[in-house]
């Protein structure tokens, strides 16, 4: 759209999983104006304040402009692309040939705004025979995915909360006012809060921005959600508020679950979690009375003790009242492509080779990665490719990750910036930014309408950088994976017609099924040239459109696409994105993946933990660490590590440690005081903010702080506190291995300024 000021181009915000549609004015390679795109199918013009700051990502001072190679003394030297690709290919093939492809680990594959790199990486991994991979999901969502798998048949039976229509909306360890997590979050929250017939329930130790809007705020003691959720469930069962008809018609194994819940000592559990029993009961009754309830859990429980158990209990709340497969409730959504990890085609067990940790949705638990490296076990990991992630900063226990990375024979990092992880690499490959290439995410998590947006580049790649699709193509070629394959007939078929191409492609895979794992590169090289100039990287979406259509034919047809090619054409054409599936609420039943299409209410692996709550000893007060630190809160001034330039922040410039007025008085500190935080994992300094939303004994640091950034004087400086200098890799869930970032025992020491 053109205005007097110039041309606005459509793309999306890359700062959180909502990927709100935006229109951007680009002037002299700067993103000078950003506004919401009203035509975007889910955000419909909605934005939060952070999107205005996207130029700090695009034009950061520490953008990489050339491949780098580490010298023996640890410094970097610039090398050209051909050298980089040749050397990396040779090095990784050498490791593969000596130790096997399983010793090469892949971490990342996309952040909040970019998932195409992970798609192309599968070809590189297949060539190397790599089988183990992970990403940030394995330090937050894998426990929940595992529970979905138990209840609904498969982890990919992931549910969407229908807050737009829910009578009661419940947030457990989730602060959507800042973190979003569903479309147009602030509008929807305000709408519910202002409607006397509806209500918001928030379970959070902190009076968060969402809790301030809520009718019911259950301010639990940190880490006691299992007691709170069990008390709500106990009330539902003991006051006979469950939907017996729903349970009889749609679930198996309800009896043992109901029996266990009938035994929950509600009063004791309410006391244990620090919430009035009457409030717990009132909330349970309100939920039971509602026509519909939708619930969202997030990091406040996923990164705290009992996290996988909490996910089960959270889901039991809506299942016991039958708020499933209906408007305003929980429904199983479609997807454009899966978010979990595949393998590179090699064989992989269900546990990791060194520590035997459970692999969920193909992802190795992040907390065990150092243990899989720092050992003399013959199957240890020896090389790593890190792409679009900053694990040396974002995973628990940065110190241990630095040790582990130093022990690798080869670490390759593909990023836009010189991150904390890139600094430890043997090779760093600079990639074009998300506004300089075709991009998309597979955060397709909505129901009953689900949307997907393919974004076109707003500007040309920064000189010296390449899109990841081209990086992986070059790596695969350098490793010779396609040397024996004649792709000319495929390219020829693509020039003739899409139909002939499909036949030729299937023919090739039919005779050589092992080539399926290289499909992204094959599509890029053969279908790519027939697409708009420079859009080769979108060729992989032709394959993805085929599998999406095969998985959800009727839903895609209801969205107006008679076949996969019509879907692909619309993806390529529509700059604001498309609604690719349309469903009725009944569809949720069809998506259940249990043999009898019934929900399996009982999860035997978690039953003992549930029953054990009643006799769990009270945590003894550890005088060394009297506080619980939530390390990584989402604020208006946090955006993972996507913004590295500290100048993007308007408030909370150094990422304050929030603390209750009572604790501040005890410690003799006030807003602006500098303190030392000491934990089992390490120590760090922070600036205090006295905040009346905090409970006594609970302190909170923002997510994403402590990044190094160039300063005016030509040096660099660390801004804020890096939360994972304080976390410890051993503090994790026994089942899913997810970390307890939100529950770090800590001591706060006043720093006397001399
Ligand atoms: N502004 C902003 N938004 C973001 C991001 C960002 O960096 N900045 N990151 C995005 C990403 S990657 C994610 S995963 C989401 C995460 O989104 P959220 O999970 O909503 O974010 P957090 O603030 O980490 O944690 C949510 C809440 O958990 C509470 N909490 C702490 N301990 C406990 C506890 O023991 N029990 C309970 N019940 N609650 C507890 C905290 O007080 C906090 O209010 O946000 C996304 N959105
Ligand atoms: N203590 C503590 N730790 C946490 C959390 C917490 O709450 N507390 N939150 C956790 C959560 S939920 C998450 S999701 C993780 C997030 O942590 P990570 O998964 O490490 O990811 P991001 O911080 O989102 O960083 C994304 C990386 O991608 C790079 N990048 C940006 N654009 C591109 C591109 O186009 N291509 C490539 N190749 N790279 C690009 C950025 O420079 C950055 O290095 O952090 C986790 N860490
Ligand atoms: S909610 Fe805010 S940060 Fe998230 S995508 Fe939308 S504008 Fe960006
Ligand atoms: Mo996340």
Layout of helices and strands:
Blueprint: E1 2-3, E2 6-12, E3 21-27, E4 30-36, H1 55-58, E5 68-70, E6 76-78, H2 81-99, E7 104-108, H3 116-128, E8 132-134, H4 142-152, E9 159-161, E10 168-172, H5 176-179, H6 185-194, E11 199-203, H7 209-213, E12 216-218, H8 225-238, H9 244-250, E13 251-252, H10 254-262, H11 266-273, H12 277-289, E14 293-297, H13 299-302, H14 307-320, E15 330-332, H15 369-373, E16 383-387, H16 391-394, H17 398-406, E17 410-415, E18 427-430, E19 449-452, H18 468-478, H19 488-496, H20 498-511, H21 519-526, H22 540-551, H23 553-558, H24 564-573, E20 578-582, H25 587-591, E21 599-600, H26 604-612, E22 627-633, E23 657-659, H27 661-667, E24 674-679, E25 683-690, E26 698-702, E27 707-710, E28 716-719, E29 744-750
Parallel strand pairs: 7-8, 7-16, 10-11, 10-14, 11-12, 13-21, 16-17, 17-18, 22-26, 23-25
Antiparallel strand pairs: 1-2, 2-3, 3-4, 5-6, 5-18, 9-15, 19-20, 22-29, 24-25, 24-29, 27-28
Bound molecules: ligand MGD (2 copies), iron/sulfur cluster and molybdenum atom.
Number of domains: 4
Q: CATH topology of the largest domain, what is it called?
A: Rossmann fold
Give the number of helices.
27
Name the shape in a single word. globular
Question: Radius of gyration in whole Å, from Cα?
Answer: 26 Å
Domain 4Fe-4S Mo/W bis-MGD-type: 6-62
Keywords: 4Fe-4S, Iron, Iron-sulfur, Metal-binding, Oxidoreductase
Protein name: Molybdopterin-dependent oxidoreductase
Pfam family, one: Molybdopterin
């Amino acid at each position: 759209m053109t205005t007097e000021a110039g041309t606005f181009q459509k793309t999306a915000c890359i700062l959180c999983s909502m990927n709100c549609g935006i229109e951007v004015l680009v002037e002299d390679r700067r993103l000078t104006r950003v506004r919401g795109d009203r035509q975007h199918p889910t955000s419909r013009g909605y934005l939060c304040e952070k999107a205005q700051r996207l130029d700090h990502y695009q034009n950061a001072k520490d953008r990489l402009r050339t491949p780098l190679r580490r010298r023996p003394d640890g410094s970097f030297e610039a090398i050209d692309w051909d050298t980089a690709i040749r050397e990396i290919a040779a090095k990784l093939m050498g490791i593969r040939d000596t130790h096997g492809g399983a010793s090469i680990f892949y971490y990342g594959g996309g952040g909040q705004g970019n998932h195409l790199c992970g798609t192309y990486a599968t070809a590189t991994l297949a060539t190397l025979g790599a089988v183990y991979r992970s990403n940030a999901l394995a330090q937050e969502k894998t426990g929940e995915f595992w529970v979905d798998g138990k209840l609904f048949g498969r982890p990919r039976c992931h549910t969407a909360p229908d807050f737009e229509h829910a009578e009661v909306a419940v947030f457990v360890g989730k602060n959507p006012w800042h973190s979003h997590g569903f479309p147009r979050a602030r509008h929807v929250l305000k709408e519910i809060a202002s409607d006397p017939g509806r209500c918001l329930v928030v379970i959070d130790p902190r009076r968060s921005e969402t809790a301030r809007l809520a009718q019911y705020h259950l301010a639990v003691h940190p880490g006691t959600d299992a007691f709170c959720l069990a008390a709500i469930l106990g009330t539902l069962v003991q006051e006979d508020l469950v939907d017996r008809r729903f349970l009889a018609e749609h679930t198996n194994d309800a009896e043992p679950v109901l029996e266990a819940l009938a035994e929950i000592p509600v009063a004791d559990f309410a006391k244990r979690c620090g919430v009035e029993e009457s409030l717990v009961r009132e909330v349970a009754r309100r939920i039971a009375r509602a026509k519909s309830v939708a619930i969202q859990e997030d990091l406040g429980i996923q990164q705290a003790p009992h996290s996988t158990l909490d996910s089960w209990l959270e889901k039991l709340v809506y299942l016991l009242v039958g708020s499933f497969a209906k408007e305003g409730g929980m429904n199983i959504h479609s997807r454009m492509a899966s978010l979990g990890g595949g393998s590179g085609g090699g064989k992989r067990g269900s546990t990791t080779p060194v520590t035997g940790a459970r692999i969920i949705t193909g992802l190795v638990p992040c907390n065990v990665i150092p243990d899989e490296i720092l050992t003399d076990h013959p199957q240890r990991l020896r090389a790593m490719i890190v792409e679009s992630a900053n694990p040396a900063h974002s995973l628990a226990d940065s110190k241990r990750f630095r040790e582990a990375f130093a022990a690798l024979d080869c670490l390759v990092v593909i990023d836009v910036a010189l991150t904390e992880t890139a600094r430890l690499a043997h090779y760093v490959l600079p990639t074009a930014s998300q506004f300089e290439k075709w991009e998309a995410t597979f955060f397709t998590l909505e129901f009953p309408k689900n949307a997907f947006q393919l974004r076109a580049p707003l500007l040309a790649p920064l000189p010296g950088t390449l899109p990841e699709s081209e990086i992986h193509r070059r790596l695969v070629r350098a490793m010779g994976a396609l040397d024996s394959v004649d792709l000319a007939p495929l390219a020829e078929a693509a020039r003739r017609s899409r139909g002939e191409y499909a036949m030729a492609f299937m023919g090739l895979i039919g005779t050589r099924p092992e080539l399926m794992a290289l499909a992204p590169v094959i599509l890029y090289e053969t279908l790519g040239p027939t697409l708009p100039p420079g859009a080769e990287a979108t060729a992989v979406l032709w394959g993805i459109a085929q599998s999406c259509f095969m998985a959800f034919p009727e839903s895609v047809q209801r969205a107006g696409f008679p076949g996969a090619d019509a879907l692909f054409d619309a993806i390529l054409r529509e700059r604001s994105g498309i609604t690719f599936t349309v469903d009725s609420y009944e569809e949720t039943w069809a998506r259940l993946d249990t043999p009898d299409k019934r929900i399996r209410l009982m999860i035997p692996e978690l039953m003992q933990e549930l029953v054990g709550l009643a006799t769990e000893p009270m945590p003894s007060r550890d005088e060394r660490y009297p506080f619980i630190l939530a390390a990584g809160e989402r604020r208006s001034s946090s955006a993972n590590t996507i913004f590295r330039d500290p100048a993007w922040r308007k408030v909370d410039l150094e990422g304050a440690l929030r603390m209750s007025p009572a604790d501040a008085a005890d410690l003799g500190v006030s807003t602006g005081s500098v303190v030392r935080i000491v934990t089992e994992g390490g120590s760090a300094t922070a600036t205090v903010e006295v905040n009346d939303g905090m409970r006594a004994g609970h302190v909170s640091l923002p997510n994403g702080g402590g990044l190094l950034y160039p300063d005016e004087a030509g040096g660099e400086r660390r801004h804020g506190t890096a939360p994972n200098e304080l976390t410890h890799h051993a503090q994790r869930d026994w089942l899913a291995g997810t970390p307890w970032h939100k529950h770090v025992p800590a001591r706060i020491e006043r720093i006397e300024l001399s």
